């Protein structure tokens, strides 16, 4: 099934074969949950089908699908950052894997043993971090998560939130300062 537009040709019947793995890998890095990543890729394909008539051929099919997926990822984080969404979905830190816990680049923890005491301590640390992030002003939390945790590009965040790059870095700095203070008060000095 080819949907044609005067300036382009889309091949939705080949999307799964040609782009599913790439889109899944793109999403999993940003959401760190394979089920959510799969859902986002499916939503991307569905949205692509619905908006195929709007495809102008100014980019490749894959680039166009990635831009749809980026919007889906942003929408996903907006949802979980809303009060209602927070009740439905919790972000996970320190569940598994060597990349877990790299929430602040300068303070990536060293690998700890897998013994039960450390697992309990990691869960307590994750809970305290969640509480500290929840205490940040909404915009600070959103920018911090998008840049530091999900690793969105500065340009994408600025465009999405309609802020300048210098404003973004001020927000990141203030969010990190507030997180450090909260963690020092509630975790390191308990």
Question: What does this molecule look like?
Answer:
The protein is mainly alpha-helical. It folds into 2 domains: 92 residues, RNA polymerase sigma factor, region 2, helix turn helix motif (Rna Polymerase Sigma Factor, Chain: A); 80 residues, Arc Repressor Mutant, subunit A (Orthogonal Bundle). Helix content is 66%, strand content 3%. It is built from 8 helices and 2 strands; from the N terminus they run ββαααααααα. The N and C termini lie far apart (62 Å). This is Sigma-70 family RNA polymerase sigma factor. Pfam families: Sigma70_r2, Sigma70_r4_2. Keywords: DNA-binding, Sigma factor, Transcription, Transcription regulation.
Distinctive features:
66% helix, Rna Polymerase Sigma Factor, Chain: A, two-stranded antiparallel ribbon, 2 domains, 190 residues
* Beta strands, count: 2
Work out the count of structural domains.
Answer: 2
Note the beta-strand portion: under 5%
Provide the gyration radius in Å: 19 Å
CATH architecture descriptor name of the largest domain: Orthogonal Bundle
Secondary structure layout:
Elements: E1 3-5, E2 8-10, H1 15-31, H2 34-50, H3 61-81, H4 83-88, H5 116-135, H6 138-149, H7 154-161, H8 165-188
Antiparallel strand pairs: 1-2
Helix pairs in contact: 1-2, 1-3, 2-3, 3-6, 5-8, 6-8
Give a short synopsis of this structure.
By secondary structure, the chain is mainly α. Helices cover 66% and strands 3% of the residues. It starts with a strand and ends with a helix.
């Amino acid at each position: 099934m080819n949907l044609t537009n005067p300036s382009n040709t889309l091949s939705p019947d080949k999307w799964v074969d040609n782009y599913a793995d790439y889109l899944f890998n793109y999403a999993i890095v940003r959401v760190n949950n394979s089920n959510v990543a799969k859902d986002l890729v499916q939503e991307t394909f569905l949205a692509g089908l619905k908006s195929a008539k709007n495809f102008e051929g100014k980019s490749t099919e894959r680039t166009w699908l990635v831009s749809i997926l980026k919007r889906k990822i942003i929408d996903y984080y907006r949802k979980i950052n809303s009060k209602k969404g927070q009740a439905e979905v919790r972000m996970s830190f320190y569940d598994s894997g060597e990349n877990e816990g790299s929430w602040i680049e300068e303070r990536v923890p060293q690998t700890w043993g897998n013994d039960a005491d450390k697992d309990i301590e990691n869960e307590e640390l994750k809970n305290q971090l969640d509480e500290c992030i929840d205490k940040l002003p909404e915009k600070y939390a959103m920018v911090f998560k998008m840049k530091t945790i999900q690793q969105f590009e500065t340009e994408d965040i600025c465009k999405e939130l309609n802020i300048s790059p210098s404003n973004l870095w001020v927000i990141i700095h203030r969010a990190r300062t507030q997180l450090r203070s909260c963690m020092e008060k509630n975790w390191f000095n308990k």
